[in-house]
Design brief:
This protein is mainly beta. It is built from four helices and 112 strands. β11 and β12 form a beta hairpin. The longest helix is centred in the C-terminal third of the chain and has 12 residues. The chain is globular.
Length: 1419
């Protein structure tokens, strides 16, 4: 905020009596004026004039009483009070001359005043004015630039230099007064080749030309290895190329024998020039890729590919991608006055009949200044894509509504307008006071006091909106707000009320008379910097080695010209960093007197020099709203790269195979439902960085069913991260409506965070060379991304469901409170056509600003024709206040090809159709944090630079403070931090400082932190904040690598001539292994040796003190008197994911020579979230598994927790021979025929950090035939001997057992920790003399990324009979064993099951097994 009055007595002369004063209140106003733009010889006059009635008696006025400037009136009232007024005097296009303006100020008395100023002709500067380039030749920083300086014009400052020859380039303000940055046009540089570059400037119709040397020197640069995508697109073929999706244009790839990577190589498209992008390679062999981004309307197209040495002309026929049409649409608007709702509402409906195509771009409602996106399923009321109705309900305010419906690809569909209840008040919000506090180089804190008659709706600062979430005191009519902004990007402040009345304030605009104050984006800083202020720059590390290593670096700047509190930031301009758009703050170190900036140069980058840009504020007398830009190419010290190999292209598809084209449906043996799998087998390659993660969305063309696939490099079915195969599988039922499944969105990311992206419909004309389908442009898009599916007979369309119940846990919510969680439960009645249970409906919450949030449901149970859903979500801070939040639910999809949803209007019958909003204060909430580096420092490598090298506590360059942004920090008493190291939260004892109520600064955070950590705070009133996750950036000077990755050992030399191979076979020898750390002390308690004979005798085991019996294979158990049964090679069922094993044992028959049959089940039932007292918070059931055969003995099952991003992957492995393995550094013996489970659970969104997970495993052994009174069962749970530190469960029937071992260790976030296994007693079991059943809970503590578990199971033949539950007759036992792995789908609950069938002479009877499975589905 700036205040104060400057009286200019020499320029405003006063005549008359009375108590009126007139003064100009601008800072350093000028009255001897020159044109601000050079082309026109005219001036712009602008003064802020304050008129004060010093007697404080009446309102005053100011008028012009001569006729010099009358049209338009140059005087505009800006602010006024009872006895003072502020006027803005503005006149445009004033011709040179001397002027005297008469001004009359009047109230009770009056006063005549004269304003005097001179407009000078720009030609008067010609005698002394000089224009000079500031460097010997043009320089390259991502593009070709020059700096130019205008001297000899005194204290006059030009805002712009008008170009006389626009085809040569254009200018923007540079750094310092009358300093400009010239951007040279590609086509002009191409025309001049190696000659001097010239540019002319227009000074009042006088042309002044200057020239400089070209950056380029004549060298023999040759283009080789041309590749075209598609390959025949530029061969003058009469067959048009159809875009591979909207705006996915043809591409050209060429290789250059370049030494710099800054070559002039571009496409001249006629209407624009486009640089080719460096993609892959090194010095002497660099590949460039260019996109022929023709406009959407083009067909016949000619263009050229240009370098200094060569020009290639091309012609092509390019047909734009067909965009589906909604057809003629008419909006139906209902004001809903008859419903007498909680607040005025309106509904918008439209219908689409017989569209030309099925899959649509999303639609948008533009309602006044707000936009509401209609992406499926939101707004889709009923029908299918052949014929549907859209219906939504919104809140309306007291203003005129203008509604436009258009598609996201700019097809206007319909428009309409209606009038609400118009308010009489047109007065905009008023800024009462402004306090500006500097936080850091990247942020400032605004404290704003704002009054608004209609209530404040939002605060906008340079396009960034803030609202009730920033209110710290008062209400929307008179409140105080705290807002954190970047001072470099906060040039304009706008205040909007709830009726869209608004006020705009630019830099130095006045907003208050008492006191006199104006808007500013920085505190008062007086400075006059130039390019020379930045010429003393050095780097911690130079001549970088970027081969597979990102380099943590520091830039040091020594300058006495730059104010120490001037905001400055650096942006890297290398090809990799341009993809990330990270702004690195430049800070000042008072100990050394140096500015410094921590930054990270990404690996596998461009060779030569790394370009960068420094941004700061312009000098105050330069045109308001500009930045000073310092390009690295101008600076004397460069950031150089010594070794690298560029990989600037994201992963791509190498091969795509469709799965299920000739689909054979199989019956679910339990329910009789036919289903099958279709999808794609995707081969993904990224030959240097390696594939990291991907997201693919598939949509059904008829019913809009959406399948979202998230996967990582660890999910490959074969290969590795450089070249691997990944499966996308969709479960389809029979019969089902015919449709196509279409890939609509793809994001593939490599280990350097470079993305390849595809969107079937781009919302805007975005052109990128990084597309995943590069290898498939020769084919039709429909051949690749479309997968057609049909069944016969085709079912008739049936409306999928009717709504039975709908409920919400909140009728009102405090949107400034810490607990903003809301839960929904609802039930539907399913029609006879059935419903897709893998398509989850979504609850939407929409506020009066037409913002919406969604809550994706989970299917809880399905009984008969009723399905129960629920979901839980957190309302954003301030969302909806002060109006209600409207509810709706959409996205029920039926098997017959249709969908249905229920708008707010439909939910009115169920009472829960809105949530009221309230606010309260005193609740601490952490919202965000500033860029935070976690430091791993090699102190010997750090130059002192005026500081010390005693460690991070003494060198200010490395004492990063964590700046937290939030609410209600002013009374913080305690801070707790969980460093994600299994120790949980601990009290933070370091220094903490609060700035106002929105900033909390923590020093002395534990270093280094390689992964995310968590913070919560408590205030003096005992209120605890949310738990906030901090994601630090590891700043590692001990090694050049941030996160080492597995790479080929055959690294390229300094100047490799060939690209690396697609499939590296060896890992680097210096690569750290991925072994988990933190081995816990996990041992079973001392145990006695038991059994008769002891430990089964000398041939079966031996006794080890304090350990117990150590058994020889194949014997096992606490007494070594159980024997593992050897089982034949399993056979995989090709129709159902089941595995069968057979075993013959002729020695085990009953008295009648008959075999006895047993069924053993081991089932992964559910995953439960437990609270701090082990209470069940939430239960997740596994509804769908994807099975993959990895080898004869290994199979993989993958499932996703519905409504979450959590995946569970289970690999089962059968061991044929005795094998010793290691898991979590625990040695384990796998006896022959043991079946081992390797279980991986990915990131889970816990409700609280104090919660845990419990994986529920069911074990059951059942005798299924010849059940008689001699049958007995037994079970035991305890701790193993044999020194394997595990728990066991043993279920026995007569002399056979199902034995499960649960190791007491797990790998959690790559750390070995203790795991507690327990026998669960809260679940119903079925125990009898012929059945033994138990549930085991594997308890998993809170984790961040990944959990790995490793139980195993085997079938035993025991020495003694079971006798816990039995009848009094003994019986013989079986001699054939059949074991299988069964994956079944039962009412949406899928079980992974190990089945042990003991058979004698006749086929196994499965009736009992079916009964047990169906009972499990109800659990």
């Amino acid at each position: 905020m700036k205040s104060g009055i400057i009286f200019i007595c020499s320029q405003i002369s006063h005549i008359g009596l009375g108590s009126i004063s007139v003064s100009i209140v601008d800072t350093n106003p000028k009255f001897n004026i020159y044109p601000k733009k050079t082309a026109l010889d005219v001036c712009t006059i602008k003064y802020n004039i304050l008129v004060v009635e010093t007697a404080n008696t009446s309102i005053i006025n100011l008028t012009q009483f001569n006729s010099t400037f009358t049209s338009p009136n140059p005087l505009k009232l800006i602010l006024n009070s009872n006895w003072q007024s502020l006027f803005l005097f503005t006149v445009e296009n004033v011709i040179p001359g001397d002027y005297k303006i008469g001004l009359m100020a009047s109230s009770v008395s009056s006063s005549s005043n004269t304003l005097s100023f001179t407009c000078n002709s720009i030609t008067s500067l010609f005698g002394t004015m000089k224009i000079n380039f500031l460097e010997e030749k043009a320089f390259y920083s991502s593009s070709l630039y020059s700096y130019i300086k205008v001297d000899g014009i005194g204290d006059h400052v030009f805002d712009y230099l008008d170009i006389g020859n626009f085809s040569h380039g254009y200018t923007i303000p540079g750094c310092g007064e009358n300093n400009f940055l010239i951007y040279w046009a590609l086509s002009y540089v191409y025309e001049t080749k190696y000659s001097n570059l010239s540019i002319s400037f227009n000074f009042a119709s006088h042309i002044i030309s200057v020239e400089t040397k070209s950056y380029y020197e004549e060298k023999e640069i040759v283009m080789t290895d041309f590749n075209y995508y598609p390959e025949n697109v530029f061969n003058n073929s009469s067959i048009p190329f159809i875009d591979f999706g909207l705006d996915n244009k043809p591409l050209i790839m060429v290789s250059l024998n370049t030494e710099t990577g800054k070559d002039l190589i571009f496409l001249n498209l006629g209407y624009q020039d486009v640089n080719l992008v460096p993609i892959k390679g090194s010095k002497g062999n660099l590949k460039y890729l260019g996109l022929v981004n023709t406009p959407r309307s083009y067909l016949n197209f000619s263009f050229s590919l240009n370098t200094f040495k060569e020009t290639y002309q091309y012609r092509s026929i390019i047909k734009g991608f067909d965009i589906p049409s909604f057809g003629n649409i008419s909006l139906n608007i209902n004001l809903m006055d008859a419903y007498n709702p909680i607040q005025p509402m309106f509904s918008i409906d439209f219908k689409v009949l017989n569209p030309t195509l099925y899959i649509f771009p999303d639609a948008i409602y533009s309602i006044n200044q707000s936009k509401l996106l209609l992406y499926f399923p939101f707004g889709y009321r009923t029908g299918s894509n052949k014929n549907f109705q859209s219906s939504i309900v919104l809140l309306r305010r007291n203003c005129i509504f203008s509604i436009l419906l258009e598609s996201t690809v700019y097809q206007q569909l319909s428009s309409n307008a209606f009038v609400g209840n118009i308010s009489d008040s047109k007065e905009p919000p008023k800024l009462i006071s402004l306090k500006l506090i500097r936080i850091s180089s990247e942020s400032s804190l605004y404290v704003l006091k704002i009054n608004s008659i209609n209530g404040l709706d939002r605060i906008s600062i340079s396009g960034n909106n803030f609202g009730i979430d920033c209110l710290i005191e008062g209400d929307i009519f008179s409140g105080t707000y705290e807002i954190i902004v970047n001072p470099l990007f906060s040039m304009v402040l706008e205040l909007f009320d709830r009726l869209n009345n608004h006020i705009n304030l630019g830099i130095d605009d006045f907003f208050s008379l008492e006191p006199l104050a104006r808007f500013s984006n920085i505190q008062d800083i007086s400075f006059n910097i130039s390019l020379n202020s930045f010429n003393n720059i050095t780097f911690l590390i130079n001549d970088l080695d970027l081969i597979n290593n990102s380099v943590s670096n520091i830039m040091y700047l020594n300058s006495s010209d730059i104010p120490t509190n001037l905001p400055m930031m650096m942006v890297l301009g290398d090809p990799i960093s341009l993809n990330t758009n990270i702004f690195y703050p430049i800070n000042y170190n008072s100990t050394s007197g140096l500015f410094y900036c921590k930054f990270i140069v990404p690996k596998n980058n461009i060779f030569g020099e790394i370009d960068f840009l420094i941004m700061t504020l312009a000098n105050k007398n330069i045109y308001t709203g500009t930045l000073s830009l310092i390009q690295s190419g101008f600076l004397s010290n460069k950031l150089r790269v010594n070794q690298t190999y560029l990989d600037n292209h994201g992963p791509i598809f190498e091969k795509i195979e469709k799965i299920g084209m000739n689909l054979v449906f199989s019956n679910n043996t339990l329910l009789g439902i036919k289903s099958g799998l279709i999808g794609w087998n995707l081969f993904i390659t990224d030959d240097y960085n390696g594939f990291e993660s991907g997201y693919i969305q598939v949509i059904g063309s008829l019913d809009n069913s959406i399948y979202n696939f998230n996967f990582t490099s660890k999910d490959f079915s074969s290969g590795d991260k450089w070249s691997g195969s990944y499966q996308l599988l969709i479960n389809v039922s029979y019969p089902c409506a015919p449709q196509s499944f279409i890939i609509t969105n793809v994001i593939l990311k490599d280990s350097n965070d470079i993305k390849s992206e595809f969107k079937l419909y781009n919302e805007i004309e975005t052109f990128s060379v990084n597309g995943p389908f590069l290898n498939f442009y020769n084919q039709s898009i429909t051949d690749i991304i479309y997968l057609n599916y049909s069944s016969s007979p085709i079912p008739n369309y049936i409306q999928p469901v009717s709504l039975y119940r709908f409920g919400c846990s909140r009728t009102s919510i405090d949107v400034l409170g810490v607990n903003r969680t809301v839960d929904f439960t609802f039930q539907v009645i399913v029609a006879s056509g059935g419903i897709k249970i893998d398509q989850l409906p979504i609850v939407y919450m929409v506020n009066s600003k037409f913002e919406k949030i969604k809550c994706i449901s989970t299917l809880n149970w399905h009984v008969g024709n009723i399905i129960d859903y629920s979901c839980s979500t957190e309302i954003p801070i301030g969302f909806g206040y002060p109006d209600p939040i409207l509810l709706s639910v959409y996205g029920f999809i039926g098997n017959t090809g249709g969908y249905i949803g229920f708008s707010t209007l439909n939910l009115m019958d169920y009472q829960s159709y809105y949530i009221n909003t309230t606010i309260s204060f005193g609740n601490p909430i952490i919202k965000s944090n500033e860029l935070y580096f976690s430091l791993k420092i090699n102190w010997k490598s750090i130059p002192k630079n005026g500081g010390t090298n005693d460690g991070p506590g003494s060198d200010p360059f490395f004492c990063d403070k964590l700046v937290l942004v939030g609410r209600e920090f002013q009374t913080t008493s305690l801070v707790f931090i969980d460093y994600n190291d299994t120790n949980g939260f601990s009290k933070y004892d370091g220094i903490k400082n609060t700035i106002e109520s929105s900033i909390l600064v923590l020093s002395n955070i534990k270093q280094p932190i390689k992964k995310s950590f968590f913070i919560t705070i408590q205030n003096l009133n005992g209120k605890i904040s949310n738990i906030y996750k901090v994601d630090p950036i590891l700043f590692n000077t001990q090694s050049s690598s941030i996160e080492p990755t597995n790479q080929p050992t055959n690294q390229p030399t300094n100047q490799p001539t060939n690209e690396p191979t697609n499939q590296p076979t060896n890992e680097p020898t210096n690569q750290p292994t991925n072994e988990p750390t933190g081995i816990p002390s996990i041992t079973n308690p001392p145990q006695l040796c038991i059994g008769s004979p002891l430990c089964g005798g000398s041939n079966q085991g031996y006794c080890k003190e304090n350990i117990g019996c150590i058994c020889y294979s194949p014997y096992t158990g606490n007494t070594c008197q159980s024997k593992v049964i050897i089982i034949d090679q399993p056979i995989l069922n090709p129709n159902n994911p089941s595995t069968n094993f057979t075993f013959d044992n002729k020695d085990d028959e009953d008295d009648n020579g008959e075999n006895r049959s047993l069924v053993g089940l081991v089932s992964i039932i559910s995953l439960r979230e437990l609270g701090v007292n082990n209470e069940i918070i939430k239960t997740h059931f596994f509804e769908k598994w994807i099975q993959t055969t990895l080898s004869n003995n290994k199979h993989q099952y993958i499932s996703n927790l519905k409504g979450t991003s959590t995946n569970i992957t289970i690999e089962t492995e059968r061991f044929d021979v005795l094998t010793n393995i290691t898991f979590a550094n625990q040695k384990l013996t796998m006896n022959p025929s043991t079946l081992k489970y390797n279980i991986n659970i990915t990131k889970y969104d816990f409700i609280s950090r104090v919660n845990s997970l419990q994986l529920v495993v069911q074990s059951q052994l059942t005798k299924t035939s010849n059940i008689d009174d001699s049958t007995c069962s037994d079970q035991s749970f305890g701790e193993t001997t044999s020194n394997d530190n595990s728990n066991y469960i043993q279920l026995s029937i007569n002399k056979h057992s199902l034995f499960g071992r649960f190791i007491k260790r797990g790998i959690v976030d790559n750390k070995i920790i203790s795991i507690n296994n327990e026998k669960l007693n809260d679940l119903p079991t079925d125990n009898s003399y012929y059945t033994s059943e138990s549930y085991i809970g594997i308890n998993i503590p809170w984790f961040n990324d990944l959990v790995q578990l490793d139980p195993d199971f085997s079938v035993l033949l025991d020495e003694s009979y079971a006798n816990s539950i039995c009848k009094n007759e003994e019986s013989g036992l079986s001699k054939k064993v059949l074991i299988g792995v069964v994956v079944g789908c039962v009412c949406g609950a899928l079980l992974i099951t190990v089945v042990a069938l003991l058979i004698i002479k006749h086929r196994t009877n499965l009736k009992i097994m079916k009964i047990k499975l169906i009972k499990l589905s109800k659990y």
